[in-house]
Amino acid sequence: MDFKSVIMPSRMECEEETHSDRYGKFVVEPLERGYGITLGNSLRRVLLSSIRGSALRQVKIGGVLQEVSYLPGVVEDVTDIILNLSNLVFKMQVSDPVTLSLSVSGPGEVTGADIKPHSDVEVLNPEEHIATLEDDGVLEIEMVVDVGIGYVPAERNKVEDEGDIYAIPVDSVFSPIKRVKYNVENTRVGDITDYDRLILEIWTDGTVTPEDALSYAGQLLTDYLALFIHFEKGPVPIYQTQQEETEDVNPNLFRAVDELELSVRSYNCLKA
């Protein structure tokens, strides 16, 4: 099958003026009419749903058994503390769960910077507020951070060891992609102006760069689409002319019956 008539994009550019570890703007052109929406929508859905990231999975807070609880000397209740912990952005160097901890006495504000350092995990927003302690307040927390994809509800994050009654499972949002936006404009190829230009914008939480996320999404789409390819690419077929096709034909087929040395019976059958 000949694909030469299909326009393929000649380049993909990244807007360097606005590029950062958390934002990237990419332009792809030229594309056949309609391919801008096809590629833009596909990449957007994969980016938002299928990029691996890190998130909180469960917490233990000072002997508390459930979320609807209060701690002496702590302004926030346990529910608010867990919500604040869920806002922390973790960058993990390993794929196995890691346990982090903090222990702080009041008075003062507790932030992500109070989490004890760990060689395999980095807190990218250490200024994030966790709780406020009064003079007699003490806050001790253990939290499990894990790697995953998409959204996992708290019910699926329950610990396997049912004897650990102090572990509170939480909802996990693993996706490092905060937002994806695409736009399709017209572009020119020669004198034709109805080709597509795809403009793709990606916002991340900083644990993955926009270009790495886009590269992974493209690879994932390629792996899936490969399942639908049941043929190998080959050279474009060259069709023979009528003269070339007749060169291998038996010349006896063009002779008259009278010229052939046939038996009487065969001759009569052909002449009939």
Would you mind describing this structure in some detail?
- The protein is an alpha+beta fold.
- It has 3 domains: 11-51 and 178-228, RNA polymerase, RBP11-like subunit (Gyrase A, domain 2, 2-Layer Sandwich), CATH 3.30.1360; 53-173, RNA Polymerase Alpha Subunit, Chain A, domain 2 (Beta Complex), CATH 2.170.120.12; 244-271, no CATH class.
- It has 5 helices and 14 strands.
- Strands 1-2-14-13 form a 4-stranded antiparallel sheet. A 4-stranded antiparallel sheet has the order 5-9-3-11, with helices on one face. It has a two-stranded antiparallel ribbon with strand order 4-7.
- It is elongated.
- 23% of the residues are buried.
Radius of gyration: 34 Å
Strand order of the largest sheet: 1-2-14-13
CATH superfamily of the largest domain: DNA-directed RNA polymerase, insert domain
CATH architecture of the largest domain: Beta Complex
Query: What percent of the residues sit in helical stretches (DSSP H or I)?
Result: 10-25%
CATH topology of the largest domain: RNA Polymerase Alpha Subunit, Chain A, domain 2
* Count of alpha/pi helices: 5
Shape annotation? elongated
Furnish the topology, listing elements before pairings.
Layout: E1 11-14, E2 23-31, H1 35-50, E3 52-61, H2 78-86, E4 90-92, E5 98-105, E6 108-111, E7 121-123, E8 129-133, E9 138-149, E10 151-152, E11 168-169, E12 172-173, E13 177-189, E14 192-204, H3 210-225, H4 242-245, H5 264-271
Antiparallel strand pairs: 1-2, 2-14, 3-9, 3-11, 4-7, 5-9, 6-8, 10-12, 13-14
